[in-house]
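Progress against Task 2.4 (sequence-to-structure conversion) is shown through the following example record, which the project officer requested during the mid-term review.
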Amino acid sequence: MDIHNINFRTIVSATESEDRVRSALSNFLFDNEIDVVNTEGHFGNRISILQARLKGRKCIQFIELLNSNLPSNDLDRLKNELEERMDDECNLHIRLDKQAAFQGMVKLAASSDTIDAQIKIKAYPARYENAIAVAEKIFENCGQIRHYRTKPLSCKDT
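C-alpha cells generated for the chain above:
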C-alpha cells in the first residue's frame, strides 16, 4: 500500500464523554493505542485531544473500512475532492463524522464535530502531483465491490 501512516485526531469538549469519543475513535484503530493530551480552552474549560496512528497493514485495513462502509455518495465525493484534500506535504485529509462513529457508522463530516484522519501518501519524489496520482490509484477501485452491512460497524469484525 502506498501509505506511510495515518494519523487520527479528535477533540473532546467539556460537554462530551471522553469514553464515548474514545469509543468512536477506536472504530477506526484496530486496537491501536490512543494518546490523550489535556489542555484548557480560552475560557478555562477542559479540552482533551485524542490522537492515534496507524502504520503498515492497519493502513490497508482503514482503506478497506472506508471502501466497505462509506456511503457511495461520500465515496464519490472523496474521490472527486482528492485535489482539495491533498496538501503540499503529501497528506490526504479526511474528516469523519464523530456522531456517526458513535453509532458505529462511517460518514464524511458535514459539521465541525469530526474525527480528522491525515493519510501520509508515499509519493516519489514527494510532490503534490505525484501524491494525487497515488491517491487516485488507492481509491480507484473503491466502491466497485461493496460490502453492505445490516448492523453497525465494528472494526473487530473486519
